[in-house]
Design goal:
There is one protein chain. It contains 7 helices and 3 strands. It has a 3-stranded antiparallel β-sheet, with no helix packed on it. Strand 1 and strand 2 form a beta hairpin. Helix 1 runs antiparallel to helix 2. The termini are far apart.
Length: 179
Amino acid sequence: MDHLRLSEGLERYERYRRDRGVQEQTLRDQRYLYLRFQQWYGDVQMRHLRQERVAQWFYARSRPLSPATHNAYRARLASFFAHAIRRGWIRVDPMVDVHRMRVPQRLRQRPAPDLLADVIDQADDDRDRAILATLVTTALRQNSVRLLRIGDVDLAQGWLRVNVTKTLQHDELDSALRR
């Protein structure tokens, strides 16, 4: 077993990932986490990493991590430790006591339908009313609605053709634009 230090293991892991084509920005983002962990734990020999102490880094903080951040950090460190096990730098996974956290679903604000109908009714002209109705009933992004053309809407058939600008995908939606 190689008796390398945590800093050396992290450097080798980063080099390994770079050789596998991981983007530099991703490596920089992950390096930040690895350096924070190393500074907290100390630059010990990899074989001296202990499960209890690794769990302590996650759970015994003055400011606890949010569940989503906890899971992201856990995934990155678990990947590093799995690599270390495959290379023989450590024998036991120090992450066994660090479990995924349930990420609560946050409900977005949802205005009442009558309030949305009132917003549409406040439009000064038919064009503005159509734009507001499209935004309210389809939940499209502003730019996707801005790019709509007359040929993209068929009220008789009840469809709307949209180029989704965020993902650059083409989609056809059934729409409730009639009122």
